[in-house]
1-acyl-sn-glycerol-3-phosphate acyltransferase (Cryptosporangium phraense), 253 residues
Amino acid sequence: MRFLAGCGRGRGGGTAVRRGFWLRFAEVILRPLLLLFTKRTWLGYENVPATGPAIFVANHTSLADPLVIAHFLYDRPREMRVLVKSSLFSVPLVGTVLRSSGQIPVYRKTRNAGEALQTAAARIRAGEAPLIYPEGTVTRDPDLWPMQGKTGAARLFLDTGAPVIPIVQWGAHALHDYRNGKIRLRPRTPVTVSAGPPVDLSAYEGAPPSGAVLKEITDVIMRRLRDDLAEVRGEPAPTGPLYDPEAAQGLAQ
């Protein structure tokens, strides 16, 4: 069943969110910059619960898009917890803000790699709504469509049963283009963020977390992100399989 993206605009009238000192400090610095450099279109606030457990999933086109999505959720308002690569926690000041605001470190390719999902699941059960980038990194699709995803979001769904809410953004790549590393901070760069109704995963409720099931759920999530992004971009989504960077690299060799 295909859900259509919501179309609400502006502040969502959610409940007040308590923010610690370092998060407020980051807001004081970053929000004015985002207001200056972006012309924002916020869609689908009716699909972002003000409280209660949820799993936010988002497409990833740029190193700038976490800030854009954070701004979107800030305006809802909804507290944002993101699964972030652990190396950022070692960056001066950035690490302080991440730790004090409760962001979740991801230790890639280590024995502690699973801790992030365990922490996220515990947060969900406590009524929070962590955000995960299923692709695990910025998309390698040449046209910035969502590529094949990792199974983290699928595992969280099977573990908690929380609704998986897709958030797509378009325009952050104009601020930072990952493909060439260029940063362009031009005033009022158009950016759009749209939250859709929960992904329909009813067919998988109570299913065992087998490799096949996890892959199917992940594909459903990624295709939904691709379809919702097509609506925001105003162009048809690619047909066929999701972009596979490993296969593409093999063909290039």
